[in-house]
Amino acid sequence: MKWMFIAAGLLAAVLALTLMAAWGRWFGKKNRSEVSLAATVKRVTFSGEAGPMASFVYQGGVMDFSIPREIAKQLNPGDRGVLTYQGSDFVYFVSKDKLMECSGEPVLARVS
DSSP state, 30? Predict the structure, then answer.
């Protein structure tokens, strides 16, 4: 008779773990892989509390990011290059000029 209670308890535990795993996959964090694409700097603004913001134009539209002050100082409207972001977070921007400074693999390998 005890074995029935033990079996029912084990079955309930397995069911609970399965439901928790399914919940985590379904409603958990989505895959936030880095995305790199060709973009042009539209504008860079230095606002008070929020810090520098940059707008980038790409094929499908415009994206705005909060960026580090050091990078904001280097960007100029009209700069073209490779924008890399992860979800809604800015990762980096490499201008076309910097990509072409070195010839061949070393610079391009760092970008991809």
Answer: P
Same domain, 52 and 99: yes
* Angstrom distance (rounded) from CA 48 to CA 63: 20
CB 111 within 8 A of CB 82: yes
14 and 53 in a common domain:
no
Structural domain of 13 = 1-29
pTM for this predicted structure? 0.60
* Strands lying side by side in the sheet with 61-66: 61-66, 51-58, 34-47, 80-86, 89-95
Are the C-beta atoms of residues 106 and 94 closer than 8 Å to each other? no
* Range with lowest mean pLDDT among 4-8, 11-15, 36-40, 67-71: 11-15
- Indicate whether 39 and 23 sit together in one domain: no
Residue 42 binned pLDDT confidence (cut-offs 50, 70, 90): very high
Structural domain total, the chain: 2
Give the whole-angstrom CA distance, residue 62 versus residue 51: 19
